[in-house]
UniProtKB/TrEMBL annotation:
Residues 261-573 form the Glycoside hydrolase family 31 TIM barrel domain. Keywords: Glycosidase, Hydrolase. SUPFAM superfamilies: (Trans)glycosidases (SSF51445), Galactose mutarotase-like (SSF74650), Glycosyl hydrolase domain (SSF51011). The keyword Lipid metabolism does not apply. Belongs to the glycosyl hydrolase 31 family. The keyword RNA-binding does not apply. One of its GO terms (biological process) is carbohydrate metabolic process. Its EC number is 3.2.1.177. Residues 55-218 form the Glycoside hydrolase family 31 N-terminal domain. It is an enzyme of class 3 (hydrolase). It comes from the Bacteria. It comes from Bifidobacterium choerinum. This is alpha-D-xyloside xylohydrolase. NCBIfam families: PRK10658.1 (NF007940).
């Protein structure tokens, strides 16, 4: 939210009250409470009248994390959805001197200076990592009369900000305005399916705003030397997270918000989809599966997209008998071929679905304030939305999924979850609709994931999810949404995946060759290389099938070669997944996350590390030209191309041309990812 008019003025229609200084403080064993007048310091008792006070509570939910809650009027949070945080009881110390208060948790200290301005300095292991100073903490009333709580941290020279969810804009977030609000906007805009109010700085701190609703960030985009963040309402809680480096910060953040579980080993193989609106039936499916086998292409999962159900009835969780007269028999045939089966679902129930009347009668849908079912026509005619705050609705929805699992379905693609209304909305448990907009996806994916844990066991549970928020990393895997079939969209997908990994999520996938439009044979082959060197790999599209023989004989060869390459790396991928599960560090890592001390890596968003030892630089042009950087791994030893055997000296950029059977896939010196 921008409210300034240059460096000195406020925009018309806005009212801003800045917290002035700390007038008094209360010290407890594990909590520091500060009281700060607005406008100007208090010099005499008369100045305590007719003016507001900002209450600041400082606590620590875990070691090396310091949480600050800014409070104008205390809110009743009983009907506000909250993120499930893994809080402990860390050892903290609260000290006071003539100059400052010191609040310490582990190696992280918040120094709050005494004086006529508010001055917060964060130090990790004695080194300054973040600072909030003059006119940083404020109450802002916007032109519509809505109050916002706002805070600012300094943005230093050379400091760069990463994360904030799966964002398709520039990987480095400096200069961007970011709104944490889930939208179904494709991959080509500033909108995002997976918004996470957490960022990391290359100055070794993380910032998490503990609010499931709309959080707005101005990252040097209004006051260029500060990162500003704000939420509507009377309170805002945020945590500064310390660590020796960004990997440790991710470990501390995911220890608080949850870590990705291990996923089944078969999920690393190739997933093949029917695509979205294509025509298909049992014979089409078997022809695709058998066609892959005949061409020697290993396949792990077959995915049925939405048209396994009848049109206008999404979701009814019933197979379209005109296409699939014997679904149990078909699933058995797929299992006999060694495949797992995934089916598409969402949390919307069209009015034509037989489930609509049942759900409406029993109060299983989100309602309007007058008690009627909330409906609209976007996506499905007259569709309703399942209310996952209602335990009975969750059990009802899960019951249909359990029937599918009993039939032979192994996992679910949980599509949508972003188009959640906020106006004229009533939830079963009375939850605030604004705060439920982003939070809804967490309840949705958890409900589905829990079914798989219950029916198949935790070791076999996996989703293919599109929407997410904080904590969604506990219900993997996520894919990147509706990308277009062109090179810019391929590149924006990678940027998004790297940002997603910097936001606490361990696994990520994308639609190989693009979702929208028809891919050229050239793009199909290049995206196949990229897709099969991602943590999870799926061919999927909108109106076009994605089986490789439709894109030429060479596409078949490329697909086979890279499926086999990924399969040869299976033990390495499983080892990397164990690291992800244990530490929160993603399988697909940005260069700066793995090589934080190399300044060249700070801006790179066209290559990545797959695990700790494999560098991948996808090719984003029809000429087959790759431009990539080889970092210094610490010993000046050369890196080696896993496919060609070519060696590369570190600390240099390279420009090379590749055919479709190779690309820069470089192995860190002294490692052998095929022998772990």
């Amino acid at each position: 939210m921008k409210f300034l008019n240059g460096g000195w003025l406020i925009k018309d229609g806005f009212d801003v009250k800045y917290a002035a200084n700390i007038y008094t403080a209360d010290i407890e064993a594990d909590k520091l409470t500060l009281f700060c007048p607005f406008g100007s310091p208090i010099y005499n008792p008369g100045m305590t009248l007719d003016g507001g006070i900002l209450t600041i509570e400082v606590t620590s939910p875990r070691e090396n994390i310091i949480t600050t809650r800014l409070i104008n009027f205390r809110e009743d949070r009983s009907h506000k959805p909250t993120f499930a945080l893994n809080e402990t009881s860390p050892q903290v110390s609260v000290e006071e001197s003539d100059e400052a208060w010191l609040f310490t948790s582990g190696k992280l200290t918040l120094r709050i200076a005494k004086g006529e301005t508010i001055d917060f300095t964060y130090l990790y292991d004695g080194k300054r990592i973040a600072h909030s100073g003059w006119r940083a903490k404020a109450l802002v009333t916007d032109p519509s009369g809505v109050l916002h709580v706002s805070e600012q941290l300094d943005l230093g020279v050379g400091e760069k900000i990463y994360g904030l969810g799966e964002r398709f804009t520039n990987f480095v977030k400096n200069g961007q305005s970011v709104e944490i609000w889930n939208e179904d906007g494709g991959t080509g805009t500033e909108q995002a399916y997976k918004n996470v109010p957490f960022y990391m700085s290359n100055r070794n701190y993380g910032l998490f705003v503990d609010n499931p609703g709309k959080v707005e960030f101005e990252i040097g985009s209004e006051k260029v030397s500060r990162v500003q963040f704000s939420v509507p309402g009377q309170e805002m809680s945020y945590s500064v997270i310390g660590g020796a480096d960004m990997k440790e910060i991710l470990a501390n953040y995911t220890a608080l918000t949850g870590r990705a579980p291990l996923v089944p080993d078969w999920s690393y193989g190739l997933w093949l989809s029917t695509s979205f609106t294509t025509d298909y039936d049992e014979q089409t499916v078997l022809d695709f599966v058998d066609g892959m086998a005949e061409r020697g292409i290993p396949l792990s999962v077959f995915h049925f997209d939405c048209r396994w159900m009848k049109e206008l009835e999404w979701c009814n969780f019933a197979w379209d008998e005109s296409k699939f007269p014997d679904p149990e028999g078909l699933l058995a045939k797929l299992h006999e071929r060694g495949l797992k089966v995934c089916v598409w679902i969402n949390s919307y129930i069209g009015q034509k679905s037989p489930l609509f009347a049942e759900g409406a009668k029993n109060g299983y849908f989100i309602k309007r304030n007058d008690g009627s079912v909330w409906q609209w026509d976007k996506w499905q005619a007259g569709m309703a939305i399942v209310d996952f705050t209602n335990p009975a609705a969750v059990e009802w929805y899960q019951g249909y999924l359990k029937k599918l699992v009993a039939m032979g379905v192994d996992c679910f693609k949980t599509d949508f979850g972003e188009r959640i209304p906020t106006e004229d909305v009533q939830y079963y448990d009375g939850s605030d609709p604004e705060l439920m907009h982003n939070y809804y996806t967490l309840l949705y994916n958890k409900a589905v994931y829990d079914v798989l844990v219950e029916t198949k066991g935790a070791d076999e549970a996996i989703l293919f999810a599109r929407s997410a928020t904080v904590g969604g990393q506990c219900y993997p895997v996520h894919w990147g949404g509706d990308c277009s079939s062109n090179y810019p969209s391929m590149a924006e997908s990678l940027r998004a995946g790297l940002s997603f990994g910097m936001s606490g999520f361990g696994y990520w996938s994308h639609d190989i060759a693009g979702f929208e439009d028809q891919a050229t044979p050239d793009l199909y082959k290049r995206w196949t290389q990229f897709g099969l060197l991602s943590s999870h790999s799926r061919y999927h599209g909108s109106t076009a099938y994605k089986v490789p023989w439709l894109y030429g004989d060479e596409a078949v060869d490329v697909c086979r070669e890279f499926v086999e390459l990924k399969d040869s790396l299976r033990p390495y991928l499983e080892k990397s997944a164990r690291e992800t599960h244990a530490s929160g560090v993603p399988m697909m890592r940005s260069m700066v996350l793995e090589f934080q001390d190399d300044p060249t890596c700070e801006d790179i968003d066209t290559q990545y590390m797959l695990g700790s030892d494999i560098l991948v630089a996808p090719i984003f042009n029809e000429e087959g030209v790759a431009r990539f950087y080889v970092p210094d791994a610490g010993d000046d030893a050369p890196w080696r191309n896993l496919i060609t055997g070519t060696e590369y000296e570190p600390g240099r950029w390279y420009v090379e041309r590749y055919d479709y059977h190779a690309l820069p896939v470089l192995v860190r010196p002294g490692t052998d990812p095929r022998n772990v």
